[in-house]
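Collaborator request, handled under Task 6.
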Amino acid sequence: MGSVDGVVWDFGNVLIRWDPLPAIAAGVGDADARAFLESYDFWSWNHVQDAGRTWAQALAVLEGDAPQWLSAGAAYVDHFPLSLLGPVPGTHELVRELAAAGVPQVGLTNWSAELYPHAPATYDVIELLRDVVVSGQERLAKPDPAIYRLVAERAGIPLDRLVFIDDSVANVAAAAALGMQAFQFIGAEQLRRDLLSLGLPL
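Structure tokens returned to the collaborator:
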């Protein structure tokens, strides 16, 4: 096939547009939602759920650390589907083309176990992936090297025969350090060129 035998996809802002702001704003209003995201380290707090912490535990932590933002944090959970803003332009077409050509594809997403079911329920392109490693279910999250080894195991393909696509520089660097081909996602047109450079049938 070329220099790789399979493709590993990140989900958030690679296959699915994601922004927590609309979900939070649905509960507390736009101004308070923006203030929460600007003044509290939402990203680190959310990452722990991606690594397996429950949302009940997360809200208890938030209540202890910053009770003024408890309603904002709860709004994110309550209105989570509003954070999913549709397909990332062009990438679902790439998944479909690769699937039609018989290229093995798997997902590797940092996503809480409780909220992940919204993804396959909403985006049928996920059905074309042979497996999905969900960080919250595995209690491991990128860029932990163990989760990349797990996705290779689940794919049945060695790390150095997989190409990994993610919008996060840190996640791409961690994959490359393990011997994966790895591309930072900046847009579908560039990604098509990147995948073609590896000999994938697009």
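The cover message to the collaborator said: "The chain has a mean pLDDT of 97. The chain has two domains: 6-17+85-197, 19-83. Please let us know whether this matches your experimental observations."
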